[in-house]
Amino acid sequence: MLSIGTMAPEFSLPDQNGEIKSLSDFKGHRVILYFYSKDMTSGCSKQACAFGELYPKFIEKGAVVIGISKDSVASHKKFEQKYGLPFILLSDTEKRVIQIYGVWKEKKISGKVSMGIVRTTYLIDEDGIIVQAFDKVKAADNPAQMLEVL
């Protein structure tokens, strides 16, 4: 996980519509950058839907929400359409950004050890500095938590 007070690493990835989005596109806005493991799974769907429900409040506070996983653009599009998600989902199939942001780690699930994304959320300020970082977040609670810290 990256440290609070450091510059958020720049990246460019395709969104759910296949359009390339870069972190620098959002300079001047606060960015809630959250990493999740997989589209359509229970926890990730709860987290995305809660971000979706609270999205107007994030916009009111001058923040944008961006979700990143290693799922494909097509998978993100289906996820967006199924749940009516109003925010950006970025596809990092090569796990470049996932690794740069320090969220690809060893996980233990039901006694089985494997590598995967540890659910992590960063708050990046208008100048690109990481001002909050939360790892191992609870999917359903994370969006309200992020709204509070804004």
What is the end-to-end distance?
20 Å
Unreliable stretches (pLDDT < 50, length at least 5) are none
Number of strands: 9
Largest sheet data: 5 strands, mixed
Shape: globular
3D architecture notes:
The structure is a single chain. This protein is α/β, with parallel strands linked by helices. 29% of the residues lie in helices and 31% in strands. It is built from four helices and nine strands, in the order E-E-E-H-E-H-E-H-E-E-E-E-H. It has helices at residues 42-60, 73-83, 96-100, 142-149, and strands spanning 12-14, 20-22, 30-35, 63-69, 88-91, 104-109, 112-117, 120-124, 130-135. The chain has a five-stranded mixed β-sheet with strand order 5-4-3-8-9. Strand 6 and strand 7 (112-117) form a beta hairpin. Helix 1 (42-60) packs parallel to helix 4. It is globular and about 40 Å long. The two termini are 20 Å apart. The model has no long low-confidence stretch (mean pLDDT 95).
List the helices and strands and how they pair.
Elements lengths: L11 E3 L5 E3 L7 E6 L6 H19 L2 E7 L3 H11 L4 E4 L4 H5 L3 E6 L2 E6 L2 E5 L5 E6 L6 H8 L1
Parallel strand pairs: 3-4, 4-5
Antiparallel strand pairs: 1-2, 3-8, 6-7, 8-9
Helix pairs in contact: 1-4
